[in-house]
Every structure is written in C-alpha cells, then in structure tokens.
Write a structure and sequence with these properties.
single chain; alpha/beta; Rossmann fold; Alpha-Beta Plaits; 2 domains; 6-stranded mixed beta sheet; 5-stranded antiparallel beta sheet; 34% helix; elongated
C-alpha cells in the first residue's frame, strides 16, 4: 500500500475531527478522497504528512511508519495542501528556486531544468517572472502543483488541486493526474468536483463526520448503489400508480419521464406490469448511479457544499 492508516484519530478540544480511520491507498492508484465540509479530509491529509500529530492510530507512507521515517519518506512525496504559500514579491520561477535550495535531496546542477519543466507542465512558463502576489488564484494553484512536481515522486497528495481553475485548467489537471498515474505515481486527490474524480479515480474513499464510511475500487463502490429504472411514456398517471403497486417510490423529475429506484425488484417484472396496465412505453432503461448520486445517497449532501 502507498498509504495505510489504522485507527487514525485526531481531536480538537472535545471535538473528534478524525475518528478511527483505516485508509488504504494501493500503489499506482488514483484515489479520490471525498467528503462534505468538515468531514475530516484535510485533517487526515495533514496527519499523513506529519504537519499535525495524530492522537491515536498508525500511519504508513510508501511502506514506512510515519512520522518516524519522515526524513526518508517525504522526499518521495509531493503535496499541495490547501492554499499554496509563496513569497509574494518574488516571481514563480524564483519561488521554486528557493524551495529547491531548501531541499537537501535536490541536485543543484539540474535545478534550472527541473524548474522549467515543472512550470511548463502546469502552463506557467509565460508567467515565470511574474510576482506571486499578482498571480490569480488559479495561477497560484498551478505554482503549488509545479512545486510538488519538481522531482520524481512515488506519491502525490493533492488537496483541492483545481481550486480557482477555469474549465481548461481543470481539464489540464485531470490530464496531469492521468499522466502521473500512467508513469507509476500513486495520486491521492481530495476534490469537490465529483465528475472530475469519477473520470480519473481508480479508487475512492468517502468521509462523513470524521469517519471513513466507504472505501474501495470505484467500480465496486458504485456497484453498491441501487440502480434506477427510467420510463418514458405519455401515460404518467398510470405509470405512477403501477410503480406504487410494485412498491417502487418514484424519484423527483419532470417532463414525460418517470424514474424510480429498483431496489430488489426485477426490471423484467416492472416492464411486464407496465405493459399489462396499458402503459405506452417510449423508453425503459436501467441506469446505474454515478458518483454524485452515490455520494448524495451516503452523505445526504450535494457536491456544492463539499471541500
């Protein structure tokens, strides 16, 4: 495992922010770390990196215990945590140069080439000399990513990497994550953009109230969600009555379509009952839940309130 925790716990006063979390991020995975505001994601990430101490539990990064092995492990880990902080009156390239000089594992002879490559990778070559204070929020996020990518990494931990980015920038981050994963880097990414996570993640973990309530390969997690049947028909009243007789609760919708969770019902039985009732069918599909549907079913909250 690239990341493993056992019973990870952190309190702030009397509040338990992270409650007995057993995180498992396989080597080579793109792990989408999801949860509503205040669910404990960022606190968990900060404990993984030794930025704050855990009150209980165990942490392993790249097979090594943390924080005891931080000196050996952290040079192999790149991270972007919350808002990136740089010297405001210094340009992007010079900020990266300052960071590189503080890295005892970095080769000074290759510093310039690595900085140029990192800036090019995140689309900041043209703004390399621009002062950080004059960067937009999206540019600041890009520079934070560049800092995480100046050296080859076995593990990359990104907390809201698309914050402040426009759609084009978001697509570029998605492509970057895919490229890194194809090169063998394990990526743990926390994001409120569920559609983006669904496009790149191989595994997901969902935090609610400080607890990890779901975890596993994305396909297996989504398979837990109840599929729904979508019915297109002009006979809405008869369809609603038939679904109720079958014990299916219609979902909110509009127009000439009705949908309902199948639960334990078989779609063949639903179709037969509708035909027997004289419903004129234009469409009858079984739709599996997407990540947003599943997330809302677990947390009761929409993606617009996530962090």
């Amino acid at each position: 495992m690239a990341v493993r925790t056992r019973g990870l716990t952190r309190r702030f006063g009397s509040q338990v922010a992270v409650d007995g979390v057993d995180l498992e991020v396989p080597q080579g995975a793109v792990y989408g770390f999801l949860g509503p505001n205040g669910s404990g994601k960022t606190t968990t990430i900060r404990m993984l990196l030794g930025l704050i101490a855990a009150h209980a539990g165990e942490i392993e990064l790249l097979g090594q215990p943390m924080p005891r092995s931080a000196g050996r492990v952290l040079p192999r880990v790149g991270a972007l945590i919350e808002g990136p902080a740089f010297h405001p009156y210094v340009g992007g390239a010079r900020n990266l140069r300052r960071l590189d000089l503080m890295d005892a594992t970095a080769d000074p002879a290759t510093s310039g080439a690595r900085i140029d490559a990192a800036l090019e990778r995140v689309g900041l070559t043209a703004a390399a000399g621009k002062r950080f204070r004059n960067y937009s929020l999206g540019m600041k996020q890009r520079l934070g990513l560049a800092a995480a990518l100046m050296q080859p990494r076995d593990l990359l931990i990104l907390d809201e990497p698309t914050n402040g980015l426009d759609p084009q920038g978001t697509r570029e981050v998605r492509r970057l994550v895919r490229d890194l994963a194809s090169d063998g880097t394990t990526v743990l990414v926390s994001s409120h953009l569920l559609s983006e996570i669904e496009q790149v993640a191989t595994h997901v973990g969902i935090m609610v109230g400080g607890r990890l309530v779901r975890q596993g390969p994305l396909t297996e997690v989504l398979a837990e969600g109840a599929p729904k049947v979508v019915i297109g028909t002009p006979d809405l009243d008869v369809t609603l009555a038939t679904l109720c007789r079958l014990g299916l609760e219609p979902l909110p919708g509009a127009g000439a379509e009705i949908s309902a969770r199948l639960g334990s019902a078989m779609v063949e039985d639903v179709a037969a009952a509708l035909v027997h009732a004289g419903v004129r069918l234009r469409r009858l599909d079984v739709v599996r839940p997407d990540l947003e549907d599943f997330f809302v079913s677990i947390t009761g909250e929409g993606f617009d309130v996530l962090r």
